[in-house]
Design a protein that fits this description.
CATH topology: ABC transporter involved in vitamin B12 uptake, BtuC
Order of helices and strands: HHHHHHHEEHHHHHHHH
Radius of gyration: 23 Å
CATH class: Mainly Alpha
Structural class: mainly alpha
Helix content: over 70%
Number of domains: 1
Distance between the termini: 43 Å
Strand content: under 5%
């Protein structure tokens, strides 16, 4: 038992080191600035996939609304960047200077009260984490305290994605509507649009992602992680043991929301806009696909799944724009049917045991006494 745990932890650490070398060394040395920024965009989705590993893979909570938290983090960052851009933009064509252009187009004469705190970067960084966590806490506390889970919780989170999309599009004067918040230029006076800025933001995204992986690994290898697995497998037994199952579910769901929000904020910085198309049902389901294909019980596997699926999405959308949705759906079905634990499960179940047997065979051969002459 201990040997298997030690082996799995060893494989996880090796995978983490290989991922770090890939995104910090190999890709920056082999890709140009445009492609590297594209990979950075893919990595922002990995944050949401990491959260799904925690709440779905290890706790059994399937959320179809992670796009909501991804979008909330992105909108919080976009609001700060838009206010900074509005303060330095040429306002001669605006009837009300100092407010975002889409507000002026919708005949707003003053900045809404909930926009004003986003003049401060410090408040913005706090809001990126707190706003999604508060929403996740309210939703999960109301559901889990009433023992609502399983497919019912998944449907509720999916409905939340639809509601948030409709709300953002409907409040065009406050949110930018279907176009979202665009024309984002600077961060505290630093231009985020040139290639060298995008490379710096790529490395910031990589370090944040690696930090989230380490935090998730810390949670999963602690006593809390063992309780989460027990909640997934035998929830009633955990409850009868005296634990408040709802509190554990609420915590891990809020942590997953925070991870997704960090990814959304980095997406806004690297891409330069945020729109409701990243909040709705489709991106939320895609995030589940990233997690399932990579392996819903592997943090590094979730990152690999996000990179592979988005790379395939880019290739198919460039070459066969009408077929990429079918290709992605087919890949998801094939992986789920053939490899239920994803690509990471395929690696640990098939490849690693073969490597271990090969290594043991080599060791046995090396210590075998030579025949007497």
């Amino acid at each position: 038992m201990s040997n298997s745990i030690f082996g799995k932890r060893s494989y996880d650490m090796i995978a983490f080191v290989l991922l770090a070398l890939l995104i910090l060394v190999v890709l920056p040395l082999t890709l140009d600035a445009f492609r590297l920024n594209l990979v950075g965009k893919y990595l922002t989705y990995s944050f949401a996939a990491l959260g799904l590993v925690l709440c779905w893979g290890y706790t059994g909570i399937l959320s179809l609304g992670q796009g909501v938290f991804f979008g909330l983090g992105g909108y919080c960052m976009a609001m700060f960047l838009k206010l900074e851009a509005s303060s330095v933009a040429n306002t001669k064509i605006q009837s009300t200077p100092g407010i975002p252009d889409f507000m002026d187009w919708n005949q707003l004469t003053s900045l809404p009260f909930f926009w004003k705190p986003f003049h401060s970067l410090t408040i913005t960084l706090v809001a990126i984490i707190m706003v999604p966590c508060i929403m996740a806490f309210v939703l999960s506390y109301a559901m889990f305290k009433r023992r609502v889970g399983g497919v019912y919780f998944a449907i509720i989170t999916q409905a939340l994605s639809a509601v948030m999309t409709i709300l953002i599009i409907g409040q065009q004067g406050y949110s930018g509507g279907v176009n979202g918040i665009t024309d984002l230029r600077t961060l505290l006076g630093w231009d985020i649009r040139p290639d060298h800025s995008k490379v710096i933001l790529y490395f910031v995204c990589c370090f944040l992602l690696l930090g989230c992986i380490l935090l998730g690994r810390f949670v999963l290898t602690s006593k809390l992680g063992r309780i989460l697995v027990a909640v997934r497998d035998k929830e009633d037994r955990v409850r009868f043991s005296g634990y408040d199952v709802a509190n554990f579910k609420v915590f891990i769901f809020c942590l997953a929301a925070a991870f997704a929000a960090i990814g959304g904020a980095m997406f806004t910085l690297q891409v330069g806009f945020m729109s409701p198309s990243f909040v709705g049902i489709v991106p939320s389901i895609e995030m589940v696909i990233f997690c399932a294909v990579g392996g819903r019980q592997s943090l590094v596997g979730a990152v690999a799944g996000a990179l592979l699926i988005n790379y395939g999405k880019t290739v198919f959308s460039e070459s066969f724009p009408e077929l990429w949705l079918f290709a992605m759906g087919g890949l998801f079905i094939a992986v789920v049917l053939a490899f239920p634990r994803g690509l990471a499960g395929l690696l640990t179940d098939q490849v690693m045991p073969w490597v271990s047997r090969l290594r043991k065979t080599g060791v046995s051969a090396s210590i075998r006494p030579s025949p007497a002459e």
